[in-house]
Design a protein that fits this description.
Blueprint lengths: L7 H17 L7 H13 L10 H4 L9 H16 L2
Length: 85
């Protein structure tokens, strides 16, 4: 636990992921639930260690709007339709 090198953060992420995976009944890694959780974790869920900011906010990425899920989906939809042109 102490020292310059440890894997505490990775262990915490893995533990959290496994807890979520079991509670959702996910048995394979090929599922949209995992990608959704990754998006939730990085763009929507505030982290105490980041002063109640999301990792995206800590990197300077701001998501505007009353409902951040809807904003993310709308932006992804716009990007998809532009790439189809």
């Amino acid at each position: 636990m102490k020292g310059e090198h440890n894997n505490n953060k990775m262990e915490r992420i893995t533990e959290r992921f496994e807890t979520e995976r079991r509670s959702c009944g996910v048995s394979t890694v090929d599922t949209p639930i995992l990608k959704s959780y990754q998006i939730f974790h990085n763009y929507l869920r505030p982290h105490e260690g980041l002063n109640d900011r999301t990792p995206a906010e800590a990197c300077g990425i701001q998501i505007q709007g009353e409902n951040k899920w809807v904003t993310l989906i709308q932006n992804a939809s716009r990007m998809k339709s532009q790439s189809d042109l």
